[in-house]
């Protein structure tokens, strides 16, 4: 019998197991896959953006929901602590644009190997191909787990770190939600986060693969501004994606009704400045057709379809454009409407929004407020953040706090 069972061998689970073992407890880590850290391998496009070298305040600003819940975890294990952890585990790191932290080799496998090395050094027993089907509850506390093969393991504490629903091929299929539900925990409905978006308009498909830098997306619902940021976006066969769109998806309300999404193609210019620029270009090319002049303002593929988006004939001679037509061009450059039809499926999302309600988890320990001996860590909880290494660090920090807290409670009982 181990003191602590950790369910899930991803970032949160491995860190929880390491922390508990470092504290002096016997730990068994149960992973349903044939190897650990499956999702780590695909983070940062295989480079593993493992944390973000920023301050606590800056970090919390990147968490759209429940940021205060993470205060204790992030204080106890900062991004700088994570960087030091990897360095000490023979995995040097580098800080790149946006304070994003990567392994110096830019190979996600090196992060996983560093964690596996530490698991071995601390004596954690790792059991692969071990799927958990339920909690064992005795005398009103978590006392172990029941395995899918019919076996049962006993322990003084169980840490659930099974991830969410995104990228189910990595093993994130919602197993932890069933475990939480069996302990009477409330589940916040799950949905995609950091997700590409499908649009009602079909014209983005004509621009598939086109990336726009330094544009602004503004999302409103009624008079309320939900999102307003500069950045980079990408057109796809189904709609829009890219860093700006993924971040904006974190701020989508439950209902997509009455949303007003606008794309400013020229955010560096005011409407007056852009109008002067447009008027100058038209005057200098009075005898040319509009569609031959627009590439001076826009990428060629976008310039080709832009007249139709603005409701102006592309073949029209520039010198013959009316003031109303010029104003339509200006309006479309500064406020091109897009209609969000839906988010892409959750199995394509980078992270899962929703999960175990944080109101029922003690933020100082990651312990269940409903069932003694039960702890949670990582994406199984209702916490998610923007891109930039924040989500992975949430997994590491909450995992570490859960492991330390479970060990501390067990050791206190044995004194």
How does this structure look, described?
With 415 residues, this protein is of the alpha+beta class. It has 2 domains: 4-192 and 347-414, FAD/NAD(P)-binding domain; 196-343, Helicase, Ruva Protein, domain 3 (Orthogonal Bundle), CATH 1.10.8.50. Helices cover 31% and strands 25% of the residues. It has helices spanning 11-22, 56-61, 71-76, 79-88, 108-121, 175-182, 243-249, 271-284, 290-293, 300-310, 323-334, 390-414, and strands at residues 4-7, 27-30, 51-52, 93-96, 100-103, 125-127, 132-138, 141-147, 152-154, 157-160, 187-193, 197-199, 211-221, 224-235, 239-241, 259-264, 336-338, 340-343, 351-356, 361-362, 367-368, 374-376. The protein has a 7-stranded antiparallel beta sheet. It has a 5-stranded parallel beta sheet with strand order 6-2-1-10-22, with helices on both faces. A 3-stranded antiparallel beta sheet has the order 3-5-4. α1 (11-22) runs parallel beside α12 (390-414) and α8 (271-284) packs across α11. The longest helix has 25 residues, at 390-414. It is elongated, with a radius of gyration of 25 Å. The two termini are 19 Å apart. The mean pLDDT is 94.
Short description:
This protein has 415 residues and is of the alpha+beta class.
List the helices and strands and how they pair.
Layout: E1 4-7, H1 11-22, E2 27-30, E3 51-52, H2 56-61, H3 71-76, H4 79-88, E4 93-96, E5 100-103, H5 108-121, E6 125-127, E7 132-138, E8 141-147, E9 152-154, E10 157-160, H6 175-182, E11 187-193, E12 197-199, E13 211-221, E14 224-235, E15 239-241, H7 243-249, E16 259-264, H8 271-284, H9 290-293, H10 300-310, H11 323-334, E17 336-338, E18 340-343, E19 351-356, E20 361-362, E21 367-368, E22 374-376, H12 390-414
